[in-house]
Design goal:
Strands 1, 2, 3, 4, 5 and 6 form a six-stranded parallel sheet that branches. Helices cover about 45% and strands about 5% of the residues. The termini are far apart. It has helices at about 15-20, 35-40, 45-60, 75-85, 95-110, 140-150, 175, 195-205, 210-215, 230, 240, 250-270, 290-300, 305-320, 325-335, 340-350, 360-370, 385-390, 395-400, 430-440, and strands at about 5, 30-35, 65-70, 90, 115, 165.
Length: about 450
C-alpha cells in the first residue's frame, strides 16, 4: 500500500530513517511538505530563504516528485493521506513545543491512519539521556558523560532511490492544492540544502577540523564549520557528521552534544522557551523604558561604541550569521551592560539568524543571563574590550565589519584616534558591571 512521507526539519534523503520506514513495504511513497502560514509568519526572512532553497534542492533530488502544499497540517495531511489511500503517514519526530502540539493535532485528525515517527534531528533524542532516578539533567558536563555512554546509531542507509515516489500530478487537483516553492533571493551568503550541507561538511573536515580546538573562538580566522543552519533544517543529520569524528575531535563533538542538551532542556521544560528556566530570576530588575529601547536600537544597529559588539551585530545584519564567541559577547553586553531582558535579544536573533533554533538560541541567551540550566555564574560579566583583544588580537574581524575603524592601529583601545563617524561608548562598562552585580545580588 502507498504511504505518505511528510518532510519537516529533515530536508534530505541520506540518513533518513523515516524515509526507509515509509518505503519498507515496497509501496509507493508520496513526498510532501506543508508550507504552514504560522511558520512563515514567525520565521525571519533569511530562514525562509534557506527553507525555500532547501526545498528546491530536495525537489530536484526527487526528480520533481515533491508535493509542496499550503495550509494547516492538521487539514492538509489527512486530506492527502486519504487521497492516495495511505496506510500510514511517516515523519521524523519533532520535539519542540510547537511541533509536538502540531503533531498531536495531525494524529487526531488522521483518525484511523497512523502517524509514525522514526528518528529525530539529534544524535540522541530528547528524553533518552536521564539520571539514574529518571530525572532530566540540568548541568551539561554530567549530561555529556551520560550522552556519550548512551551512544547513537550509525547513519541510516537511505537515499533518493530508496522509495518509489508518487508523482504529485497523480493526486486530484482539488486535494493536491499544490503551490510553487517560493523563489530564493540573494539574502543568503552560502548555498542551502542537502548537497550544499554535505559539501560544506567535507570541506570543513578536510581543511579546518584538525585546528578547530585551537581556533574555534577566533572570529577573525573564520574556521568554524558553518553547519548550524544545515543542522537546523535537517539538510544533514548529525550522525553523518559524527561518523567522521575521531578521538581527537572531542571539541567538535561537545558542540553537537550541547545542541542535544538544549533540545532536551526544552523538551523537559517547554516553558523555558520564553521564560527563565530558573524562576528565581523572574525577580531580576531589568530596564524596559524609552531609554532602554533607544540603547536596544543602538545594539541592534551595531552603534554601541564597543567595537567587538558592533562588529558582531553588523555581521548579523549583513549575513544572518554571527560567530559563537561573539554571540556570547553581545549577549552578555545586552543583559549585563544594558540591563535589558534577554528575551529582547533572543527575539532579535531569531528574526535575523539563518540558523535560529528555539532550543539553542533561547538557552544560549539564558546561559549569558545566568537564569538557565548550567548557566554562567551571574558574577561573570564579559568585558567587551578584553574579549575583543583576546579573540580578535589583530583586529581583523572588527575592521572587516566596521569600515570606520579600518585605519585605526588598535581597534580595541580607542582613544584620541576614535574616528568622528564612529560613536562613543553608550555606557561605561565598569559602572554597568557594578550595577549588574548589584541587581543580581538582590535576588539572593
Amino acid at each position: 500500500m502507498p504511504t505518505l512521507l511528510w518532510f519537516r526539519r529533515d530536508l534530505r534523503c541520506h540518513d533518513h530513517p523515516a524515509l526507509l520506514e515509509a518505503a519498507e513495504r515496497d509501496g509507493e511513497v508520496l513526498a510532501c511538505y506543508v508550507l504552514d502560514p504560522r511558520l512563515a509568519a514567525s520565521s525571519g526572512r533569511r530562514r525562509l530563504q534557506y527553507l525555500y532553497r532547501a526545498l528546491h534542492d530536495l525537489s530536484d533530488s526527487l526528480g520533481g516528485r515533491l508535493l509542496v502544499t499550503g495550509g494547516r497540517p492538521e487539514q492538509r495531511i489527512p486530506e492527502l493521506a486519504r487521497a492516495v489511500g495511505a496506510a500510514a503517514v511517516h515523519i521524523t519526530q519533532d520535539h519542540s513545543p510547537f511541533g509536538r502540539r502540531r503533531d498531536e493535532q495531525v494524529a487526531e485528525a488522521l483518525r484511523d491512519v497512523p502517524l509514525r515517527a522514526a528518528g529525530s534531528p539529534y544524535l540522541v533524542s530528547p528524553g533518552r539521556v536521564l539520571k539514574s532516578d529518571g530525572a532530566p539533567y540540568q548541568v551539561f558536563t554530567p549530561f555529556f558523560r551520560a550522552w556519550r555512554q548512551h551512544g547513537w546509531r550509525r547513519p541510516a542507509d537511505s537515499g533518493a532511490d530508496s522509495a518509489r515516489w508518487i508523482d504529485p500530478a497523480e493526486v486530484a487537483d482539488d486535494v493536491r492544492n499544490a503551490v510553487d516553492i517560493p523563489s530564493a533571493t540573494n539574502d543568503l551568503t552560502f548555498d542551502a540544502g542537502e548537497r550544499a550541507a554535505l559539501a560544506q561538511w567535507r570541506q570543513f573536515v578536510t581543511a579546518d577540523l584538525a585546528e578547530y580546538p585551537a581556533q574555534r573562538d577566533r572570529p577573525d580566522l573564520d574556521t568554524t564549520s558553518r553547519m548550524s543552519a544545515h543542522l537546523k533544517f535537517g539538510a544533514i543529520h548529525p550522525r553523518t557528521m559524527a561518523a567522521d569524528l575521531g578521538r581527537g575531535d572531542e571539541a567538535y563533538l561537545r558542540e553537537l552534544a550541547f545542541r542535544d542538551f538544549y533540545a532536551a532542556v526544552l523538551h523537559h521544560w517547554p516553558g523555558s522557551a520564553w521564560s527563565n528556566w530558573n524562576r528565581d530570576f523572574d525577580a531580576i530588575e531589568v530596564d524596559e523604558d524609552e531609554t532602554a529601547r533607544q540603547v536596544f536600537e543602538a545594539w541592534k544597529a551595531g552603534r554601541t561604541g564597543f567595537p567587538i559588539v558592533d562588529a558582531g551585530m553588523r555581521q548579523l545584519a549583513a549575513t544572518g550569521f554571527m560567530h559563537n564567541r561573539v554571540r556570547m559577547i553581545v549577549a552578555s553586553f545586552l543583559v549585563k551592560d544594558l540591563h535589558l531582558p534577554w528575551q529582547w535579544g533572543a527575539r532579535w536573533f531569531l528574526d535575523q539568524l539563518v540558523d535560529g533554533d528555539m532550543a539553542s538560541n533561547q538557552h544560549g541567551w539564558q546561559w549569558a543571563a545566568g537564569c538557565g540550566t548550567d548557566a554562567a555564574p551571574y558574577f561573570r560579566v564579559f568585558n567587551p574590550t578584553l574579549q575583543g583583544a583576546k579573540f580578535d588580537p589583530d583586529g581583523d574581524y572588527v575592521r572587516r565589519w566596521i569600515p570606520e575603524l579600518a585605519g585605526v592601529d588598535d581597534v580595541h583601545k580607542l582613544g584620541a584616534d576614535r574616528p568622528a563617524d564612529y560613536p562613543e561608548p553608550i555606557v561605561d562598562h565598569a559602572e554597568e558591571r557594578v550595577e549588574a552585580l548589584r541587581r543580581y545580588r538582590r535576588l539572593g
